[in-house]
What we know:
CATH topology: Rossmann fold
Largest sheet: 5 strands, parallel
Strand content: 15-25%
Number of domains: 1
Structural class: alpha/beta
Mean pLDDT: 90
Number of helices: 8
Shape: globular
CATH superfamily: SGNH hydrolase
Number of strands: 7
Strand order of the largest sheet: 2-1-3-4-5
Distance between the termini: 22 Å
Order of helices and strands: EHEEHHHEHEHHEEH
CATH architecture: 3-Layer(aba) Sandwich
Low-confidence stretches: 186-190
Amino acid sequence: MPRYLALGDSMSIDDDTGVESGGAVNQFHRWLGDGWELDDRTCDGGRMEHVPIDVSGDVITLTIGGNDLLGNKEKYLQQGLSGYANEHLRLLQKIRATNPVSLLIVGDIYHPDGQLTEQEHEAFSVANRLIHSNCAKVGAKLATIYDVFRGNEAEYLCLQIEPTHKGATAIAGLFRALYEARDKGIGFSI
């Protein structure tokens, strides 16, 4: 039985969607169908250091980085994001080493539904550029969550940072589109 491995933070979980099994992971798993085993390792508040690296799957989704950025905001605003980029790349490299031929889908990060300073907004933009670059380095497919959420934050987020059911549906839609593109041979190579 093929395995869907879900890794990451609350961008993927059900908790704040208001719908039972309404998170992105469960929606995507339902779409994959009954023939797929789900190994859901996502958690609220997840950070890069908490992601297990010794697990495997045929399809892997990873939503991570927002909590790291917000939790270390002062450090990154003062010192820059090179440490963030390096930690993210090391994580992707370890996941890829354990799963060399798996479809690895990595989400970028949206910014919270609320006011950000210009410096904070720029930090989110830089972080996403780094995530995009890291995905290319390990042959991961990029789920452009930021682009999909931009301008829809009021509808797609609750509690300023948690996906609503509509937000989770949008994320699951990105996962599906990347899976389907792989099946059709569109832009997929490892």
